[in-house]
From TrEMBL:
An annotated Gene Ontology molecular function: oxidoreductase activity, acting on NAD(P)H
Protein name: Flavodoxin-like domain-containing protein
Pfam family, one: Flavodoxin_1
Domain Flavodoxin-like: start-end pairs: 4-118
SUPFAM superfamilies in the record: Flavoproteins
Length: 118
């Protein structure tokens, strides 16, 4: 059966309300899901994203359009997992010196994008 993961960070409760709505909908459809609330005590490394077919990620926006660090850290974490596990056939044709794998290059690029959010 298709299994979903609902991930969210909520400071004031609005994003949690939306996450709860998604939970209600999935429950009414008889779907399996887990919920991961991001924050100081979150142990997101213990939740294996590969166990899920669908991942919902919810985040508020603060400080003139910024995404909270808890969410950015999670995005970075799952991007790393996705790149390592799903894009492992990327290859880079290059000389021997100063080589980086294409995965490393892609990760660097994605981290730059995530950092721009800060
Ligand atoms: C102090 C503060 C700053 C905010 N800054 C932004 C912002 O820069 N851009 C934006 O679109 N929304 C901003 N918002 C709106 C929040 O993103 C919105 O209220 C969101 O639903 C809060 O989610 P939460 O209750 O789950 O924390 C801000 C809200 C607060 C209270």
């Amino acid at each position: 059966m298709i299994k979903s993961l609902i991930v969210y960070y909520s400071l004031g409760g609005n994003t949690e309300v939306v996450a709860n709505k998604i939970e209600e909908k999935l429950t009414s459809l008889g779907k399996e899901f887990d919920v991961l609330s991001l924050g100081k005590k979150s142990k997101f490394e213990s939740v294996d994203i590969e166990n899920y077919d669908i991942v919902f990620i919810g985040s508020p926006t603060y400080k003139e359009g910024k995404t909270p660090l808890y969410v950015l850290d999670y995005l970075r974490y799952i991007l790393n997992t996705i790149i390592l596990n799903y894009l492992n056939s990327l290859y880079l044709e290059q000389g021997i010196r100063n080589g980086h794998t294409l995965q490393e290059q892609l990760m660097k690029y994605l981290i730059t994008l995530v950092k721009k959010q800060r």
